[in-house]
Design goal:
This protein is α/β, with parallel strands linked by helices and 212 residues long. Helices cover 33% and strands 20% of the residues. It has one domain: Vaccinia Virus protein VP39 (Rossmann fold, 3-Layer(aba) Sandwich), CATH 3.40.50. It is globular. The protein has helices spanning 2-20, 36-40, 53-59, 105-118, 131-137, 141-144, 186-195, 199-202; strands spanning 25-29, 46-51, 69-73, 92-96, 123-129, 168-174, 205-211. Helix 2 links the parallel strand 1 (25-29) and strand 2 (46-51).
Amino acid sequence: MTLCIRAKKIDAYARKFLAGYPKSVVIHLGCGLDSRHTRVNNGEVEWYDLDMPEVIDLRKRFYEETASYHMIPSSVTDMGWTDLISPGGRPVLVIAEGLFMYLKEEEVKALILKLKKAFPGCGLVFDAYSALTARSAGKHPSIKKTGAVIHWGIDDPAAIEQWAEGIRLKEEWYFTQAEDLEKLGSGYRLLFRIAGLFTAARKAHRILYYNL
């Protein structure tokens, strides 16, 4: 359920960005088989989807590259991929959905600082766990089955602003704010309303939007 809410909210961020900057560049890190490019494409954006080589190999069975749509086979932590993108002065939005919690804090920091250097002034949207959620999420059956390891969570998003001068938090968005919650059953609506009353519950998993 939260995955659908997350995807819709990030789509909304992308659409708003493209409405303001139609001829811009969007970079989707850890794209998997996500179809966001086809969902929000305005016909003018230059779009880059990045994931591990084996994922991109699979992705190419379903999507074709064009003059404005590119796929980059690379680990997100191998910063050399940034050299493959030349915005040419165009605004840049970077999306990292369901990714940063699997990186270590030093990797997240190194990546954000590299994004700031390579694409100064870019926007960065990603979802993040709280530190408590990061410590406990690995015990969830759905994650244990994959063998994935959760490494990183953040409680105070302002801490990232201290990593370099000029980094600014634009929005901290909670899943309890989603309008689509009204479409859920009464039990789920009550659960989210109760969660919204407690800071720890609201911050367990939310979306952060920075300007770098």
